[in-house]
Amino acid sequence: MYKKKPVIFLYLAVFITIISFLAISETSYCFVANEVLVVVNSRMSGGKGIAKKYMKIRDIPEENILSTSLTLHEVMEREEYEKGLLLPVQEKIAALKKKGRNIYAIVLVYGVPLKVMPPTPDWKTEDIIADLRREKNKLQKDGEKQTDAEKLIKELAARIDELTGTNKRAAVDSELMLAKAKGYDLSGWIENPYFIGFQNKKTFLKKNDILLVSRLDGPDEKTVYRILEDTIAAEHKGLQGTAYFDARWPLPEKKQLSGYAQWDASLHKAAQVVERRMQVKLDAQPELFAPGSAPNAALYAGWYSLGKYIDSFTWVQGAVGYHIASAECSTLKKAASPVWCVQMLNKGVAATIGPVYEPYVQGFPLPELFFAALTEGYMDLGESYLISLPYISWQMVLVGDPLYRPFDPLPAVKKDMTPNQ
Question: Is the pTM of this model over 0.70?
């Protein structure tokens, strides 16, 4: 799951970073309800009803809805994505802009496909792919174990992936974040200019090129309506409970970390951050929280149980959490799937995050940043996600109301955000 690719992150004091980020208008990202576009699949029964309820709850203008006809499958072809979703979104944004309304966020409603495939290869490329696969299968069938044969098999597999465009498939949500951008490469990930770790780095895209995209989704309509109800209830009473963070190793003394070590250390730092808000339980052993051992769970981040949800938690109303493992959001429609996103929604969370395909660990939101922003209370769910997410045009999905704000601002934030006091 770890991809060995140069990544530069800034190791900053979390609270100072978040507060400074918010205080500088040039880098902040704050949007309001009338800047949200709600997208519905007209072919999905129940989708429009959910959209209308959500727009009424959040006072989103009626004209900020886009209904477009899409496949009912969770996976859509690239051509359908471009013609059936991307183009209508771009046209709707342009039409609203002419009326003086800028769109900065998109909410995809139950029924909008989850994944977009790479462009279909032309027939010449398909012939080459077929030849390479035959060659690879022959080597594997012959059972050759020599070093040269194994090396050749790996090279053939890499070439097949390149030609089929495996690294050009993505989450619909992550791809749609670039609906305002033009001329970017579909191959691999693109640095998110809103990510705090890239603030002193020149990125290919600018902040104005990026849209925040999340979705109100789940295995059935009932789950989505429950998410909305829990979100509003938690905002009224405040999110209360216990925060659980499941690292695998003790916090290292070394400061400059990467890959697994950095994300594991970030879970430790997230636990320290959230202690200002609620009781925290941090586990730093290889074993995960045991089944039934995490009652009253309000927040969660941890790893690593691949594609197998562990029923450790009793989730409070409005709970937010995510599990760091590959393809944990590979489906949202199969209620019986053991992947974490589906099961967390089944069991009662109001918001979760996960990848549709292999994202590599660097593709996940950095826990210390996400939970710092969320629990300080100045940023809502969507903004907290945006500033903690390193890469876009990639694999990650945010399920939940982006306007969800479960905490009032902490006193320190209120003071720092008040000018001339």
Answer: yes
